[in-house]
Amino acid sequence: MAYDIRIAGTEQHFSCEPGQNILDAGLKAGIEMPYSCRKGVCGNCAGGIASGAAQCPPNDVAGPGQVLYCQCVPEGDLEIVPTAWHRIDPAARKQFSAKVYRNTLAADDVSVLQLRLPAGQRAKFKAGQYLQVTLPDGSRRSYSMANPPHESDTLQLHIRHVAGGQFTRIVPTLKQGDLLQVELPFGNFELKEESSSPMLCVVGGTGFAPVKSLLDDLVKKGVKRPVTLIWGGRDRNGLYLMAAVDRWKKLLPGFDFVPAVEDAADAQALGGFHGRVDDALRTRFESLAGYEVYCCGAPPMVAAVKKACVDERGLDPKHFFSDVFVPGPAA
Ligand code: FES
Hints:
Elements: E1 3-7, E2 13-16, H1 22-28, E3 31-32, E4 46-51, E5 54-55, E6 67-68, E7 73-74, E8 78-81, E9 86-87, E10 94-107, E11 110-116, E12 130-134, E13 140-144, E14 154-160, H2 166-170, E15 179-186, E16 199-204, H3 208-221, E17 227-233, H4 242-251, E18 255-261, H5 264-270, E19 273-274, H6 277-284, E20 292-297, H7 299-313, E21 320-324
Parallel strand pairs: 1-8, 16-17, 16-20, 17-18, 18-19, 20-21
Antiparallel strand pairs: 1-2, 3-9, 4-6, 4-8, 5-7, 10-11, 10-15, 11-14, 12-13, 12-15
Helix pairs in contact: 6-7
This protein binds FE2/S2 (inorganic) cluster (FES).
């Protein structure tokens, strides 16, 4: 028998099948709450339970009195207190047979894959969202769209090669005309369009992809918000798409770029910061009060950036938006 999950203080409720977690049940019913990894790593889905019992494994990323909705399985009816929620249309998500038309090795360990949708078909998504690729064995991998939404007949993916990764083995062999099954859109990492606050984007490696979509979208819409991008990598090869950065320098008024690389010689050659992205932002910003921060990358990097922004530079935690990349099968 399904359980009833009610959002405290509202008339909104949805049903949850036995064994299903709270986040998945909400998404299936068209109620989206904050999330990113869906694997219990990022902490974005943390929220409260006002009444009722649920099985929630221990974690060290939710705040006091909070649980992770992507991990919590109700044991009966629940009243929950999410930090935010809104209605979505689950039917807006679509599957496509997308054709490879370009596959470029942008760095030693990064492929840029350009896909085309079948003639006459368009993908509808918001800048910053992601898709899922279905592999031959039926498992799925998640990748952010790097192209902006108005380029809706194409999908650009930045794929970091993961040692032993199943898709990593396939990617270098993909050639023009090969088909991939994709489904989109997913995720709620997206530009807050109603805001005019200055933006700080902090990305590591292929965390660049969703932010590229955001910034290309700003260019297309003629939005004039001050934007600083800090892009981190081991060396200059890790900053694998500088042509996009050069374009924003020309087309985005108030755009500032800080490369942050661990290789000292490359940092000097780039005129950038030698070290980690969180230290780069500490050096660059005395205060982030009034800013919005968009951060994408591996879990430790995102956690370090959040700590620097919120605990040390006065950023309102509600204005920290993150997309956490966790390798492996999509949840
Ligand atoms: S911890 Fe639940 S979405 Fe990341």
